[in-house]
Amino acid sequence: MAQVRAAASGIGLALVTGTLLLGTACFPVHTPIHTTRFDGTRHDTVVVLLPGFAAHDTTFAKKGVVDALRRGGVEADLVAVDATFGYYTKDALIERLREDVWPLTRSYDHVWVLGISMGGLGTLLTARAFADDVEGIVLLSPYLGRGKTLRDVQDGPLRAYTPPTDPTWDEALWGYYTRLDGHAESLPVVLLGHGDKDLGTGNLDWLAGYLPADHVRVVPGGHTWTTWTTLAEGFGRDVLPRYDAFGAPAPVAAEVPPTEETP
User: What is d(CA 60, CA 58) in angstroms, rounded to the nearest whole number?
Assistant: First the structure.
């Protein structure tokens, strides 16, 4: 991700509005990074939440994503991270996650990551950086990279893509995720959802082609919170319970007292 600053014109699909002209000074980086925790009733699983452009850790509750996950039956602990645009442009996202967030995950048996839009990109980066820890990721309308890079990646089968010798951040990212094409077992579970009128649907449909059909959901709507709350609830209700992290906890075997021997 060494060249992430070069992608500033693309990260976060909301940037098409011209908000980028405000400059990166509007997106400070804090040490430690801010987080908001939403405790569930199941404490062996944590879901790390990464927001989209112009959203914050608190936005997940304000816009109804936390409630949608709970309605869908997700009782895991949730840790929302205030990973705003500045953490991407200053190449600080993974460092701050490693220093400030990942220690919070160490007490859990299962770690998943959910990201929206720009946070979907962050989720892909996080799953690569913490490959030994992340069991699954949920990508909601994710930003996947710059147009030129994606055109190169999509020029043939994903497995055939080879990044240049000195890759940019998104070339390196897709060099890693070539394993979706034939070696997906080496990756965490990947779930993808978006709206049928979303931004970048061509790229999202391309990615969906490398995922199992039941890992992909398309719902009516655009690049909006209504779309994402619908997806969050649906994944929580219909898909996540298939996995140990969200299914019924394994019953604890009762201790059987030793049988006394008859003299």
Answer: 5
Residue ranges making up the domain that contains 203? 4-242
Nearest Cα to Cα of residue 231 among 49, 55, 68, 111: 68
Decide if 8 is inside a domain.
yes
Report yes or no on 256 lying in a domain.
no
CATH code, 182: 3.40.50.1820
* Secondary structure string (H, E, C) spanning 7-26: HCCCCCHHHHHCHHHHCHHH
Query: Tens of pLDDT along 43-53?
Result: 999 999 999 99
User: Does 78 fall in a domain?
Assistant: yes
Total of domains in the chain: 1
pLDDT tens, 74-83? 999 999 999 9
263 vs 39, 249, 256, 257, 260, CA distance in Å?
53, 41, 21, 18, 9
Global pTM value:
0.87
Closest CA to 35 of 64, 60, 53: 60
DSSP conformation letters of 107-151: T-SEEEEEEETHHHHHHHHHHHHTTTTEEEEEEES-----HHHHH
Residue 103 DSSP SS3: helix
β-pair partners for 35: 81
Q: How many CB atoms lie within 10 A of CB 82?
A: 18
Beta-carbon neighbour count of residue 41 at 10 Å?
8
Residue 110 one-letter amino acid = H
How many helices and strands, by DSSP H and E, does the chain display? 10, 7
254 within some domain: no
Residue with tokens 């995922």: 211
Whose CA is closest to 231, among 112, 139, 97, 123? 139
The residues facing 179 across adjacent strands are none
